[in-house]
């Protein structure tokens, strides 16, 4: 059987490689190579076919490797890694897996056909260019605040990017990662299990690494690491983020969000600014005062005191 990792490793070369040579290296026929390359191309892998020479990947494409990821992950906490060339949704996949209390599963994909964002929005991402990953964690009982958990995830990702790449990342409530007002990454939290017992929390992270053909239209302006002058190996990026997140998840059941409140507020994009909150019935307008120890959004409404917003599905915009 043709091994995708071996084929992708062979393609990830500066020079073009012929189908015949690839077949000899991998012990399969040239026709098998051609069919698999066509499948990968259909999934969105930008393979250049050079007539009379062979195949190669464009400069700047770094491929994910399950072997490389497994070698750099915290295997005491992350006990399984699944890497897909194409999948509907990494979050949806992990929601089907058994609950393992106090342990994590990691799912990474090169492309998604049904990626999801908050509030039912579609998450679009160029295949083989960005980070599409999900981590599941088994809790003995539901966390006291799912909203607070989402905020804690955004905080860990923001701090990791700031420390590793010196990117001035801020957080737009509840868990969008922003740079200069443009969206760099988003977080989606799903929960499965009985409300009275153990649960499986699945954290989805979409991070723009390189979006060469990304449209700048629509409600959001988008940012990627490449546009900030950052070049990185996506395997190192995924493992670094995963290791950071599982460390937080391992103690969240006892520490909760409260100990992270001040850190989150220090990175809030809208703290101290006048905002509108949409989707809470009557529209709220006032000055954002950060979040409280449960992760609730605090809005200082003119003449009415401070209102708490706990529904993470609302939309917050500058007035």
UniProtKB/TrEMBL annotation:
Q: What is the E.C. number?
A: 6.3.4.15
The UniProt entry, under CDD domains, shows: BPL
Query: Domain BPL/LPL catalytic, which positions?
Result: 72-253
Q: Which residues bind DNA?
A: 19-38
What does the entry list under GO cellular component?
Answer: cytoplasm
What biological process terms from GO does the record include? regulation of DNA-templated transcription
The protein's UniProt keywords, in alphabetical order, are: ATP-binding, Biotin, DNA-binding, Ligase, Nucleotide-binding, Repressor, Transcription, Transcription regulation
Q: Catalytic activity annotated for this protein?
A: biotin + L-lysyl-[protein] + ATP = N(6)-biotinyl-L-lysyl-[protein] + AMP + diphosphate + H(+)
Function according to Swiss-Prot or TrEMBL: Acts both as a biotin--[acetyl-CoA-carboxylase] ligase and a biotin-operon repressor. In the presence of ATP, BirA activates biotin to form the BirA-biotinyl-5'-adenylate (BirA-bio-5'-AMP or holoBirA) complex. HoloBirA can either transfer the biotinyl moiety to the biotin carboxyl carrier protein (BCCP) subunit of acetyl-CoA carboxylase, or bind to the biotin operator site and inhibit transcription of the operon.
Q: What protein name applies here?
A: Bifunctional ligase/repressor BirA
Its source organism is: Arenicella chitinivorans
């Amino acid at each position: 059987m043709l091994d995708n990792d071996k084929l992708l490793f062979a393609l990830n070369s500066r020079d073009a490689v012929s189908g015949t040579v690839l077949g000899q290296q991998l012990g399969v026929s040239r026709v098998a190579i051609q069919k698999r390359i066509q499948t990968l191309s259909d999934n969105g892998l930008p393979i250049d076919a050079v007539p009379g020479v062979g195949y190669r990947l464009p400069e700047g494409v770094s491929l994910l490797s399950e072997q490389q990821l497994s070698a750099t992950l915290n295997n005491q906490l992350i006990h399984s890694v699944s890497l897909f060339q194409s999948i509907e949704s990494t979050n949806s996949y992990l929601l089907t897996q058994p609950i393992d209390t106090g342990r994590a599963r990691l799912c990474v994909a090169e492309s998604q056909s049904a990626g999801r964002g908050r509030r039912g929005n579609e998450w679009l991402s160029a295949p083989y260019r960005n980070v599409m990953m999900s981590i599941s964690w088994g809790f003995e009982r539901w966390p006291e605040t799912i909203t607070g958990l989402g905020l804690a995830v955004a905080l860990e990702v923001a701090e990791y990017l700031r420390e590793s790449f010196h990117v001035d990342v801020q957080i737009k409530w509840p868990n969008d990662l922003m740079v200069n007002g443009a969206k760099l990454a988003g977080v989606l939290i799903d929960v499965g299990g009985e409300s009275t017992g153990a649960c499986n929390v699945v954290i989805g992270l979409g991070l723009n690494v390189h979006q060469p053909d990304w449209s700048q239209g629509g409600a959001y302006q988008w940012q990627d690491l490449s546009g900030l002058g950052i070049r990185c190996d996506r395997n190192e990026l995924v493992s670094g983020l995963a290791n950071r997140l599982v460390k937080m998840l391992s103690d969240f059941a006892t520490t909760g969000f409260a100990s992270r409140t001040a850190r989150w507020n220090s990175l809030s994009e809208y703290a101290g600014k006048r905002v509108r909150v949409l989707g809470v019935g009557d529209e709220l307008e006032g000055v954002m005062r950060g979040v409280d120890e449960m992760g609730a959004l605090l809005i200082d409404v003119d003449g009415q005191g401070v209102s708490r917003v706990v529904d993470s599905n609302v939309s917050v915009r500058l007035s």
